[in-house]
Every structure is written in C-alpha cells, then in structure tokens.
C-alpha cells in the first residue's frame, strides 16, 4: 500500500520500504535525505522543515501518480518529515519498487527532483551564527516561468 | 470571505500565518498588489499561489470561501 | 564502517544503511534486489544463489574502492545473500552515502552493474516445472573479451 | 600440487566442487584443455579463470600451490 505522508515523527525507513514490496518487484530503490553537517564549508547546527501539509500530501500523491503513468507497474511511497531536525536525522524517504532495476533508479530520481519543484515544504537552516530560509525566499531570482515547471500533466 | 495563508519567510515577515479578508471575485494578481500595499516589506511578485491546495495562475479569479496560499520557492527534500 | 559481505543469513537493511551514514552525507541511496515472482510471464518458485565467497567479498570491496575513487567522499556498503530464497526475499542490498544526491544515485547504479559483471555469484532459478543456472552457464555466448570488462583499473 | 574449483552449472556437470592435480608451470589454457579432455561434457573455452581469487588471463602460468577457480558467467544481483 503506497504511502504519501508529511509527518512530525521520526520516519520508519523499513515501513516505507515494505509498503512498496510486491511479488512482481525485483528492484527497490530507496532514497534517504539526511541533514548534512557541512555545506560548502558552512557548518549546519540544525534544520527546521515547515510544510503546507494538506497540499504537500496531495502533491506527493501526484508525484506517485506521475511515476505510475511514466513507468507502469512501478510502485512508490514518499514520506517527508517536518519540524526541527539534527545532523544525520532523516528528512525524506522515497521508496520505489519495479520489476527491473533501471526504472527503480529513474523513478526514484524523478521523485526527489519533483519534490524539490512542486511540494510546498520549506527548510530553514540554523548555523552557529545565523539562520536562513532556503529556497530564495527573498525572491532575488524568480522561477523562470513564474511557477515550477510541471511536466507530464 | 477568503482565507489567505503564508509560509516560511513570508510568514515571519508579516508575523501572521493566516489572514481573513472580505474579498472575492478578484484576480490573484490584484490580491497580491493589495497585500503588498498593506505589508510594504512583503514581495509576492514572483510567489506562486495555490487556491484550495492546487497551483493557480495569477489571472485566476478568487471566489468566496477560497483558501489562497502563497507558496514561496520550496526547499524540501 | 563500510561492509562488503556474502552471507547465508537474512540481510538487515537498516544495518547496511546505518553503516554508510556520516555527518558529511546528505543523501543515501539504497538498492535492494528481491526475488521476483514473474519474469517474462514465467513463474519463479524460488531461487538459489551460490558464490565463491572469499573472492566475491574481495570483488565487492574492489567495487567499493572503485566508487570512492570515482566519487571522492562517497561511502558504500554491499551485502549479498546466498542460499535458497523465496519470492520477495532480499538477495542484495547496496547503500551509498554522499554529500549530494546525484552521486548517490550514480554510485549505487554503478555498484549493481559491477556486481553483475565481476562478482562470482550465480543464481539458479526454480520454476514449477524446471530449474536453470542463470548467466549463460552453457556458454552459448561468450564474454566479448573472454572476461568481464574492467573499467577504472 | 594445485587446487581447481568449480561452481554452479560446471560443478553440477562434473559432480565435483574441487579437484587436486599434480600440475604446475602450465598455462591456464593448457589446463583447460586437459580438463575438457577428462570431462568431455565440460566447456571451459570461454570461462573466466581466477588464480588465488584474482581474475587471470588464459596465458597466465599456474604455479605450485595455486588455487585455480573457473568462473562461469556470473548472475548475482
């Protein structure tokens, strides 16, 4: 049973993986996004994720739908955590099961790229001496088309 | 009556996560202009908008009871 | 601590994932190969994997070394199970951790392709009405160069 | 004395996983020919060989105490 969820709790990686296992699947690709300590030499202390949860879950479901249209027979689950996270905490888990390995990699990669385009989740980074919402909140650059690109539908 | 939602940096900037406004039959672009007059520090020019949890273009008309959410550039994952 | 192991026991996916997590990693890609019930309409009942364990572990380690040369800072672990497996059982787990997501996908994909080239592991498939060693054991086709291609070293 | 290892289908074909032979200073290709004479059903023409757990070319000389493993096409993963 596929899962598309925003949660404030720790993500159970096994539960996400198990949700996509099925007898026709021979390959399961899992992507886990964790909080990285250093980005371009800058030290992160913690992160805070905020979402528009009801819409974010709809968008996650939509990504799952896009995947099953692009790669028939491929099952996916996506769980994204919100709230305050520490170094190495898991922020997002994507699991994709497919008959053959190529599609499991492609669909998983597609899912993470789409999350970064269309799912209303925001990350605030806390450093030793400051904090900032990531994602060009101050609009110094615009989306080229005024909104995220929406392929496939 | 419409509900307007703000998130992340924009929410911190105006100090509110939600506004109620007696507006309807108004284009999103006009609603943006009105809110930017009310909160001079707020920039919504290139912010995406969702109406009732679906992305909507700036020329879309906001109807009574709509939930309008301003979606600054996302940074999940 | 990276793991490169051949085992007759069930693979603990979490242990493999945890072995690659480190503070500089922001992305962990995991590939899980499971036993698929149907392949081109043919129904598999079970699989048996056999290995040349000591050499296979050396080759897995070699793949890990190739990965860390191709993608500096990327950590990997690979565990392959041998013995008799049932439908949906896990045969192989690859975990790759990297600072950025692109390399985690690339290195993981590289690992599974290399396993299929250079690691002495063989799969015997059992169907309702037969069994066969997979991998062209009868040498109807040869490796183009008489041995698997060895890139990068 | 050398040790020769067989795996998978080849192991089933000859009914042995291991042979001991009093050979050394012999090319792999010559060893293959000798074994194929001994086991007429066995084909090693295009089988890879590992000496002491490292892949080796067919013109490599087998030394005393070497462990020679014939590696039919692999199918792990």
Task: Describe the fold and architecture.
The complex is a heterotetramer, with 2 copies of chain A (153 residues) and 2 copies of chain B (77 residues). Chain A has helices spanning 13-18, 53-70, 101-118; strands spanning 4-7, 27-34, 38-39, 42-51, 75-81, 83-86, 90-98, 121-127, 130-134. Chain A has 153 residues and is of the alpha+beta class. Chain A has one domain (4-132): Molybdopterin biosynthesis MoaE subunit (Aldehyde Oxidoreductase, domain 3). In chain A, the strands form 2 sheets. In chain A, strands 3, 4, 6, 8 and 9 form a 5-stranded antiparallel β-sheet that branches. Chain A has a 4-stranded mixed β-sheet with strand order 1-5-7-2. In chain A, strand 3 and strand 4 form a beta hairpin. Chain A is elongated, with a radius of gyration of 16 Å. The two termini of chain A are 24 Å apart. Chain B is α+β, with helices and mostly antiparallel strands and 77 residues long. In chain B, a hairpin with a 2-residue loop joins strand 4 (48-51) and strand 5. Chain B is globular. The N and C termini of chain B lie far apart (34 Å). In chain B, 34% of the residues are buried. The model of chain B has no long low-confidence stretch (mean pLDDT 96). Chains A and C meet through helix 1, strand 2, strand 3 and helix 3 of A and helix 1, strand 2, strand 3 and helix 3 of C. Chains B, D: One of its GO terms (molecular function) is nucleotide binding. Chains B, D: Belongs to the MoaD family. Chains B, D: InterPro entries: Beta-grasp_dom_sf, MOCS2A, Mopterin_synth/thiamin_S_b, ThiS/MoaD-like.
What is the count of structural domains of chain A?
1
Order of helices and strands of chain B: EHEEHEEEE
Number of strands of chain A: 9
Summing up helix and strand content along with how strands pair, one would put the structural category of chain B as: alpha+beta
At the fourth level of CATH, the homologous superfamily of chain B is: Beta-grasp domain
Number of domains of chain B: 1
Spatial shape of chain A: elongated
Widest sheet, order of strands of chain B: 2-1-7-4-5
Rg from Cα of chain B:
11 Å
Number of separate helices of chain A: 3
Order of helices and strands of chain A: EHEEEHEEEHEE
Q: Which structural category fits the helices and strands of chain A?
A: alpha+beta
- Corresponding CATH architecture of chain B: Roll
N/C terminus separation of chain A: 24 Å
CATH-scheme architecture of chain A: Alpha-Beta Complex
Instruction: Profile the largest sheet of chain B.
Output: 5 strands, mixed
CATH topology of chain A: Aldehyde Oxidoreductase, domain 3
Put simply, the count of helices of chain B is 2
Q: Specify the overall morphology of chain B.
A: globular
Subunit structure (chains A, C): Heterotetramer of 2 MoaD subunits and 2 MoaE subunits. Also stable as homodimer. The enzyme changes between these two forms during catalysis.
Family (chains A, C): Belongs to the MoaE family.
Pathway (chains A, C): Cofactor biosynthesis; molybdopterin biosynthesis
GO molecular function (chains A, C): molybdopterin synthase activity
